[in-house]
Amino acid sequence: MRFSLAIACKNIRRRPVRAALMCIIVLFLSFTAFMGGYLIISLQNGLDGYRARLGADIIVVPSAAQGHGTVDNVLLHGITGNYYIPQDSLRKLDGIEGIEKNTCQFYLTSAKASCCSARVQIIGFDPVTDFTVTPWINSNIDSGISDGDIIIGSDIAYPADGSIRFYGESYHVAAQLEKTGTGLDNAVFTNRNTIDKMAHSAAGTVERETLKDIDPENAASCVLIKVKDGYDISAVADDINIHISKVRATPSVSMIESVAQGFGNVSVFISVITVGIWLISVIIIIAVFALMMNERKKEFAVLRVAGASGKMIVSAVSAEAAVISITGSVIGLVISLILTAPLSESIRNHFSLPFMQPDMMIMLFLSVGSVVMPFLIGVITAVLSAFRITGNESGLLLREDA
After folding, report:
1. Where exactly are the structural domains of the chain?
2. Which helix H or strand E contains 57, and what residues bound it?
């Protein structure tokens, strides 16, 4: 083994360009294996989180909000906005047949907060009627949400004293939501009394100008509805759209299907690119190793004449391929890990899809796989080529080379 490794290292030093070329090819294999799996799994996790987080059967928003800052944009991308459903429209919802329960939310766009590098969406909700927010915090908080308490998304950092300032007032962080992979990871939640206080604290700001004649305790930016068993969700949504003006009701399944379709398109694109690069890289590895082995026929013949067995030669070739492959695979993995954050953000922004990173076990599995698979391909290809060459008689190899 020591002989094989010594020969391998000498060959690499003697032909650094050839070794570097092989290392780069293996690097691409490792990189595409990790990033392809990482992106597809993260998108699927984001879609699952979005589906679970939505919670409601029907989402009702003001008609004026359609197309800019709608609730699905807030859920997915954290797009902020102030828009409100008229009081008479809210009262009419009680007369719609098929509604089992509903809960209102009030959206307030914050100024730049001490916790964040950008504007955030503050969402007021009713803990008594809510069925979409509390399931994500009930494992983190034992008591109700008191006045002055806030619940923050998983991506929001907060000081050690557990307080965040909005409009000059400090609010206590009572809990933090679990990761959802949506824009709500950067949102802030609080009860209606607290958001009413925030709205009044915003006096004189651009946000306050949009709140003229709006009472946060009674107004709503959206209504989340749970439909009774036995009722058709689309039919109930249509009933709302027909009988209540200035609102737009959308079945949540339509939103999920739209996101799922976008996910499918991106997933296919990533899969095609990943498989394409893999196939090209594997073909190049096979071709280069075959050419490299053919070029070294005389070297192998001399070693055989000098007394080296075919097994020793194959072992040396295997060691050389192993050193090159493991080096390329590890470098490819390191580059992949460095690029996960910026590439993830780019995918999220360009394709407007929920995105949630895999857990540590999945990341470990992807890391091991992205190193082991290219390593095995490189070593197996080199060994097969070496067996083919060393199977010929040494004299024939020397005469053929001459």
Report:
1. 2-49+259-401, 54-251
2. none
Q: Which two tokens stand for residue 272?
A: 């095609």
Phi, psi of 217 (to 5 degrees): -70, -25
Query: Beta-carbon neighbour count of residue 211 at 10 Å?
Result: 18
3-class state of residue 209 by DSSP: helix
Does the pLDDT at position 24 exceed 70?
yes
- Say if pTM beats, i.e. exceeds, 0.85: no
Neighbours of 6 (CB within 10 A): 12
Q: Is 183 helix (H, G, I), strand (E, B) or coil?
A: helix
From residue 338, give the alpha-carbon distance in Å to each of 35, 248, 334: 11, 43, 6
Q: What strands, in cross-sheet order, belong to the sheet with 169-176?
A: 163-166, 169-176, 149-152, 188-191, 121-125, 99-109, 222-227, 58-62, 247-251
Helix (H, G, I), strand (E, B) or coil at 15: coil
- Could you tell me if 323 and 12 are in contact, meaning their C-beta atoms sit under 8 angstroms apart? yes
The set of residues, in sequence order, having a beta carbon less than 8 Å from that of 227 and lying 6+ positions away, is: 57, 58, 98, 99, 100, 233, 236
Burial of residue 2 (number of CB atoms within 10 Å: 0-12, 13-18, 19+): exposed
pLDDT in tens, 127-160: 888 887 777 664 455 456 788 888 888 878 877 7
